[in-house]
Amino acid sequence: MSASASQRLRSIFASSAFSRDQALELISASRGKARVRMRAGGRHTQGLDRVHGGVVTALADTAATFAAYSAVEIGRAHV
Fold first, then answer.
1. pTM of this prediction?
2. Nearest 5°: phi and psi at 35?
3. What string of pLDDT tens digits covers the 79 residues of the chain?
């Protein structure tokens, strides 16, 4: 992935209100791969004071989405 593509991907990630709200951080991205970290806190827990499964799913979904973005030309239609 080119430096400009990497910067564009980081820009898209940074502009995501959801990522900011949920304390997600794009650690790294390369063609077909993305590492995303979450700083889980009290707002991410369920009644038993454990991280809610939906939060874990959102983390996995975000990482998969950015891995896919890293493998295609952003802004171009893909089927």
1. 0.82
2. -115, 125
3. 777 888 888 999 999 999 999 999 999 998 899 999 999 999 999 999 999 999 999 999 999 999 998 888 766 766 6
